[in-house]
Amino acid sequence: xxxxxxxxxxxxxxxxxxxxxxxxxxxxxxxxxxxxxxxxxxxxxxxxxxxxxxxxxxxxxxxxxxxxxxxxxxxxxxxxxxxxxxxxxxxxxxxxxxxxxxxxxxxxxxxxxxxxxxxxxxxxxxxxxxxxxxxxxxxxxxxxxxxxxxxxxxxxxxxxxxxxxxxxxxxxxxxxxxxxxxxxxxxxxxxxxxxxxxxxxxxxxxxxxxxxxxxxxxxxxxxxxxxxxxxxxxxxxxxxxxxxxxxxxxxxxxxxxxxxxxxxxxxxxxxxxxxxxxxxxxxxxxxxxxxxxxxxxxxxxxxxxxxxxxxxxxxxxxxxxxxxxxxxxxxxxxxxxxxxxxxxxxxxxxxxxxxxx
Length: 357
Known about the structure:
The chain is 63% helix and 10% strand. The chain is of the alpha+beta class.
């Protein structure tokens, strides 16, 4: 089971009245999520993890894996013990989590969070809420924008990999369609690719990828694994695979996050800017992305453009802390010390920082 673990608005105010039950439910979900975010940003994930509904998550994860045999029932039971540790591991890659927005339909409710970290970069996580739980926030799944899939989908694939390695694959093949069967039967090659990745042998990853059938080469997980390998070993191959990914998944939420660093490193700043605009549209609007746009302008040495985006970020949300630090750096580099002092004062008055004279 240890192997399984490794695979794997500021306060939003709603003007609801007592006659609107949907708004009241939204209030409950938001209030609890804001409490969890405050705890998570302080380093404690226990209460949030405990709000995860393991049984409903497992129902989604095992949707196409029949558990009518004793071995697979035991396997599902064992997996249940690994769900919360697996979810908890997601948070270890990031250092800051911020609320972005939410989506509500007649039968669903989800809350979108932005995650940031130095090496891990930027990601968005969308938490699927159990709408049958009306008095408390219960999470049943998480959609990762970087991978472009639900965590239940990722763990479903990991489960099938373990099943295939333990000779139980025949128990589930009969329930799958032709494409699903081909994908499931190809999972041992994905196991090989991941083992080569752990060994740092990226060329072998690409060799295994090349041995896949044409249709499997276009499966997202195989293509993403090949892209990560080519990024390290073969720039031309990397470019080609990125283009294939763009053609195969043109509207996938993972695309802007996947390609942004590449375009920045290559100095293709206009394309990088387009990716940010696309990401902004995909997530339904995130003011923080003005800070990223400012960074792109700074790389282009267009300081006026960089300042403009940071000022826009603050106009939209006076609590956009990174925008103040961005302006502070730009004004310091320009020698505009009056503006530097203004931004230091803002950081003191709004966020409670203390600076010496």
